[in-house]
Structure formats: structure tokens, C-alpha cells
Amino acid sequence: MLTRLTITGLLLFGLTLGAAYAEDEKAPKPDPDFYPVSIRLPEQGLALGANQLKVTFDNRAKDSEVEGNLKFELVVLGPDDARQSYFGEVDAMRFGQKREVLLEGVKVDTTENVRFLVILDPENSAKESNEDNNRYIFQAKIKGPETEKPETEVPEAKAPETEVPEAKAPESEVPETKAPESEVPEAKASETEVPEANDPETAVPEAKAPKSDASEAETPEP
User: Distance between CA 125 and CA 92 in Å, rounded?
Assistant: First the structure.
């Protein structure tokens, strides 16, 4: 009995799951939402004449899938309402599946600012959830030739020539060495005051020969 109930339950579960899966398969997929993401210029910059551009597209609608190709138009808008159009195709994409398209020979004939306008699905041939974001515009300018700056010769910086005076030993006046002038007193005879002879107080006694103690020898008569 239990085995029969188990088999019956599994059969019912399988039938329910199959029906749900069938309904899911029949449920309509959401409409895609294609839009241009960016425009990339050449690495060396935009040049006068033919250029190579890269345009990127994406689909932002989840679970949406579209088969086939989508057309797009690139318009170069110059001054005075001048415009040139270039056409291309891109494979349809799933959600988050970006696709890049290379466009060659895109001409620019002005040195003024130009604008690049990308229109995805311009004829509205694909049904989308949002038809208002199929355009992208980008502005750029011609990269002019590099102007070489004249080489300006910078004068060599020199220190000002300062005349340095010749170093000389200071001339110190050496005083002339002279022997000290010692005053030699003039030799003068001492003035001895000789008292006058008449002056009894200062009378100089007359010099007499000293007397010899020996008596004069008498010469004996022969």
C-alpha cells in the first residue's frame, strides 16, 4: 500500500513539474533593450581625412533574446549643418552581451569640433522595451600637428666675475731700532775752589817734605 502511494505521488509531482515547465516555455520573453554604449576614436587621436572608429552596443533587458542582425547608422555632424552618414549591421545580443563593430574610412574634413551620432535600429524593425535610448552622441576635435617648439639656447649661468684683490701681507711699519741715546755727562774737571791764601780760615798749609828719622850722615873728614 505504501509503495503504491509513493509511486502515485511521484507521478503527480512529475506531471505538475512538466506542466509548469510547459507553461514557462509558453511564457513570452521580455522585449530586448538595445542601446549604443560608446564610440572609440583611434589611439593616435582623430585625424583630418579617413578615420577608424569602434562602436559598442549592448542589451540591458534581462532574459531577452533576439536572433538576426540589427542595423545602425553613424552620422558625422560638422559645422554649418554638414553631415555624412555611414551604415552597418551588428548581431543581435543577449542580456549583457556587448558587441563591438569596427567602422573604417570615416572621413572628417574640418579642423573644428565634430559630433558623431550613432542610431541603433533607425527603422525600428526590432521590438524593444525602450525605444528612447537608441541614440548616442559624442563630440571630438581634430588633433592638430605637433608644433615643435624652437630650441631656445639658455645662456650658461655664470657667477659674476668679482675681482679678488691680491692677498698681501699687511705692511706693518717696523720702527727703526736705535740704540738708546744715553746722555754721557760731559767730563768736566771738578772745580775745586781754592781758597785764597790770604784767607786764614781756608789757608792751605804749605807742603813740606817729610822729615826722615835718620840723622844726616856726617861725612868724616879724611
Answer: 12
- Tens-level pLDDT at each residue, the chain (222 residues): 545 545 555 555 555 655 555 455 567 889 999 999 999 999 888 999 999 999 999 999 998 877 889 999 999 999 988 999 999 999 989 998 999 999 999 999 999 999 999 999 999 998 999 999 999 999 998 876 554 555 555 556 666 666 656 656 556 555 565 555 545 455 454 454 544 544 444 444 554 544 544 444 444 444
The torsion angle over the Cα atoms of residues 62, 63, 67 and 68, rounded to 10 degrees, is: 0
Query: Is the overall model pTM greater than 0.70, yes or no?
Result: no
